[in-house]
Amino acid sequence: MLHDIATGKKSKAKFSTDWAVGVLLVGEGYPFYDTEGHERSDGHLLQGLTPKNIEHFHLYNVSHKKDKFMTNGCLPLVATGRGKTLAEAQKMVYQDVIPQVFFPGMFYRTDIGNRCVEDLKKLKSWGYELDRIA
User: Fold this and answer.
1) Number of domains the chain is built from
2) Please, are residues 52 and 96 in contact by the beta-carbon 8 Å criterion?
């Protein structure tokens, strides 16, 4: 698929037309992992992650010990949401997905996707071919 895109060929891969938003869920020490004066987020219980909701979470620094998920650093996971519009994807990730999990010291940005529409308009004005703008 990537070769097709790079060479200008029409790809046979199928893609969703939904919008998607991914939000980093980070812990104490981010982005200064292992820097003096900052706490690490190792060994905290990641609460709320289940087989039913795991499809909306992409694990990075997480370990599975004794049937529990534990953080292994200050960047344990990404939460994702999808929707027919950017606003729907943002609503899903912020109101439906993120509230399902928690670990001590967890924080995240609340503005992911807010600049997307303006950025896409700017790209289009620069000559990029875009199928849609939000």
Assistant:
1) 1
2) no
pTM: 0.80
Write out the residue range of the structural domain in which residue 77 sits: 17-125
Residue keyed to tokens 């909701």: 53
User: Three-state SS across the chain?
Assistant: CHHHHHHCCCCCCCCCCCEEEEEEEECCCCCCCCCCCCCCCEEEECECCCCCCHHHEEECCEEEECCEEEEECCCCEEEEEEECCHHHHHHHHHHHHHHHCECCCCECCCCCCCCHHHHHHHHHHCCCCCCCCC
φ and ψ at 51, to 5 degrees? -60, -25
Q: Report, as an integer, the average pLDDT of 19-24.
A: 96
